[in-house]
Amino acid sequence: MENSRRHFLKSTCALVAGVSVYPLSSNQANAETAVGTNNTKYAMLHDETKCIGCNACVEACREVNHVPEGVTRLSIERLGPFGEYPNQFYHFTRHSCQHCEDAPCVNVCPTGAAFIDKETGIVSVNADRCVGCQYCIAACPYEVRFINPVTKAADKCDFCRETNLKQGKQPACVEACPTKALVFGNLKDPESELVALLKANPTQRSKLDLGTRPKLFRIKAKQGEIIL
Ligand code: SF4
Ligand code: SF4
Ligand code: SF4
Q1: If phi over 0 gives left and psi between -120 and 50 gives alpha, with beta otherwise, what is residue 55?
Q2: Is the preceding omega at residue 86 within 30 degrees of 0, hence cis?
Q3: Membrane spanning segments where (predicted)?
Q4: Among 14-18, 63-67, 86-90, 166-170, whose mean pLDDT is lowest?
Q5: Closest listed residue to residue 187, CA positions, set 209, 214, 158
Q6: Confidence of residue 6 (pLDDT cuts 50, 70, 90)
Q7: Which domains does the chain carry?
Q8: Which residues line ligand 3 (CB under 6 A)?
Q9: How far apart are CA 91 and CA 48, in angstroms?
Q10: Helix (H, G, I), strand (E, B) or coil at 15
Q11: What is the mean pLDDT of the chain?
């Protein structure tokens, strides 16, 4: 009894700490941010309740975006095992750029190589302008940037802006996911699947207290101990 009460309290505290209430009407969205001169502001949702940790997303990202071995734009972290044998299970959580609306990486870049695309709200990198100073890597509170050993420029997830999006496709990780755990879409489109899911489910975003206004949402797995 005491164990379940403690578990409930831990879970509740964790949810309150990271709970995500995002303004989803177009007026509110416009007021919140200066990015996105048109009606597009891309974001992603990782439904952890559907994720099986297969890493198909990671491999698809590497292939489509020509990410060299030894570095990655995306990883799936495994937590667990939880529960008692033989009913043990794991939780999987996505680690990648959060596409912050107030992005520390952009704020510190001395050359303008790190930027927010005004048409889409995607935080991106202009490799031609990057001098490899690594200020952005130090400034990113989510630790998702790296120096690409081939281009020698800072690199990270750009929602496949230079690859799949240019070809009118979904991001490679979304296309590859066998369980539809990843949903990509436009926060300013009230008809989008993404907005419908955000309205229908409690979601979380990481490190909201920093004021970065991240646009990577997650539906948390419902079972298991939450480690604070
Ligand atoms: S998560 Fe890091 S790299 Fe991505 S926009 Fe935020 S500060 Fe920049
Ligand atoms: S959106 Fe594209 S760049 Fe970002 S993790 Fe997915 S596949 Fe990689
Ligand atoms: S491809 Fe989908 S199910 Fe597999 S690890 Fe990635 S998000 Fe999870």
Answers
A1: left
A2: yes
A3: none
A4: 14-18
A5: 214
A6: very low
A7: 2-219 (3.30.70.20)
A8: 51-57, 76, 92, 176-177, 179, 181-182
A9: 7
A10: helix
A11: 86
E strands along 41-127, which residues? 42-47, 74-82, 89-96, 114-116, 123-125
Q: What is the pLDDT of residues 24-59, one digit of tens each?
A: 644 333 333 344 457 999 999 999 999 999 999 999
Give the atom of ligand 2 at the shortest distance from the alpha carbon of 184: 1
**Ligand 2 near 159 CB (within 6 A):** yes
Lowest mean pLDDT of 57-71, 79-93, 123-137, 195-209, name the range.
Answer: 79-93
Residues with CB under 6 A from ligand 1: 97-100, 103-105, 123, 140, 142, 144-145, 156, 212
Residue 155 contacts residue 67 (beta carbons within 8 Å): yes
| Alpha-carbon distance values, 139 to 44, 70, 81, 92, 143 (Å) | 22, 22, 33, 26, 8
Structure tokens, 4 = 């379940």
Exposure string of 113-124, with b = 16+ CB inside 10 Å and e = fewer, is bbbbbeebbbbb
Average pLDDT over residues 93-105: 98
Classify residue 38 by its DSSP letter: S
Span from the CA of 92 to the centroid of ligand 3 (angstroms): 8
Instruction: Report which protein residue has its CA nearest ligand 1's atom 2.
Output: 140
For residues 145 and 154, the answer to whether their CB atoms sit within 8 Å is: yes
